[in-house]
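Demo today. Your pick:
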Amino acid sequence: MITALILSERGVEALAVTLAALVSGVAEGVVGDAVVLARSEDAATARVADAMGAAFVVTGDASPWRAALPLARRDWLFCLEAGDVPAHGWIPVVERFLLHPGERRYARLRRPRGWPALAGAVRDLVAPRLLASGDLVHKGLLAGPRLPRPARLNAGLERDR
């Protein structure tokens, strides 16, 4: 099972879209819990997180993904941004990876096309080993100084506009 970490910077509507998209993962036993991350206090985001049974944490300027570690109850973390929707077929792909990660305890889903994909490609060139939306990572890797290159998963993310 995984903990979904959702960085909420696009408003409560985008957050609700992502949380709703994860319901199928909960039903299939892949998603165990969720943590909603915000860089500043936001009462509306906190209410949506609470209504969906997710934890809520204010990260401030800290790395948002690492700030969620104390609240993540599972060993595997699935990083998402509000508005991200895992594409059809993501559950079996993630399940296969979790069952047989081998030495690779870090993987990345394909990102949405258009500007988000371009921004992700630039980020991968400049800082290829920073966590980003679409990453699936084992908690144990975050204790180290540097992440390995992610495995590429044959599943993608879509972005709600």
